[in-house]
Amino acid sequence: MKKKILVAGGTGYIGSHTTVELQQAGYDVLIIDDLSNSNIEVLDGIERITGIRPEFVQLDLKDKEGTRKALQEHPGVEGVILFAASKAVGESVQQPLKYYRNNITTLINILELMPEFNMKGIVFSSSCTVYGQPDPENLPVTENAPIKPATSPYGNTKQINEEIIRDTIHAGAPFKSIILRYFNPIGAHPTAEIGELPNGVPQNLIPYLVQTAIGIRKELSVFGDDYNTPDGSCIRDYINVVDLAKAHVVAMNRMLENKSDDKMEIFNLGTGRGVSVLELVNTFEKATGVKVPHKIVGRREGDIEQVWANPEKANNVLGWKAEESLEDTLKSAWNWQLKLRERGIQ
Ligand code: WQD
Hints:
The protein is α/β, with parallel strands linked by helices. The protein is 40% helix and 17% strand. The longest helix has 21 residues, at 96-116.
């Protein structure tokens, strides 16, 4: 019999790609999502790719009773992947309580419900923001790099979430946990059936870049060219979203099949390659043949100068590696934008 996984936040950007990979690996998926930052049509995209429509419950995971009821009505869940969270850094500064309430209540509810339903493991979405700006000797960052004070309430919720999981496991919880620290996920499914759907004016680089390339935005602002990096622009580790999604399947298998004795493990998910903003714009132009009007403006407050992953632990221990090239990943983001235009969405 197929094993069933709860994907909390499964209609979102990373959640939808992970649902596809889980189904293709032979899992059944139950999605719970309140659709606060996603859209029911994502289920159609998932079904077009895999031929399988995941079970779906529209529900706010802060509602513990509602979540319990959903799990009773959709029995047999063996593990959970928790994506559902608010994730806009800027908004979190303006509305910190929304972030603390959403991101912390949801995790606590899930951790409390897991034993009731005999779930064996949780994969948690964390972020490289927990490292802040690593000291130069700690680049590329390993999982052992110091955790720096968070620079936003959003980042702080990720740190607190990790601590909540650590304390719960330490107290003898009857399940395992794997925390995945994502670097910068980008791109879309190669079929262009699912991808990222930003609300309003995009804050993140790739959505803004592709919207500029297609003419929705006039020009891309490159935030700073006076950083201490080879071309002066910031450096990040951009990871293909399908590669990222696959790591969740490996992590879930690892817990359900008891491949490790550790009850809590942490992995960086990145490519190991740092790419500057200007390099990224150039690579996009070369890969797609489409120009991206851009200008250099001042630095964005709160930006980290440079951070990229040492992904060796995930490579060696999980046997997972980022495979897609940056060129193909950027092409997938562009194809998704073209598809949105075709459908009259953006
Ligand atoms: C990338 C680079 C910008 C927009 C944030 C969160 C992180 C994660 C992903 C998840 C930076 C530059 C951007 C633009 C630009 N969170 N840039 N012009 O800041 O690395 O990470 O999103 O949900 O937790 O902190 O990502 O895509 O915003 O920026 O020059 O219009 O692109 O300065 O160097 P970031 P980003």
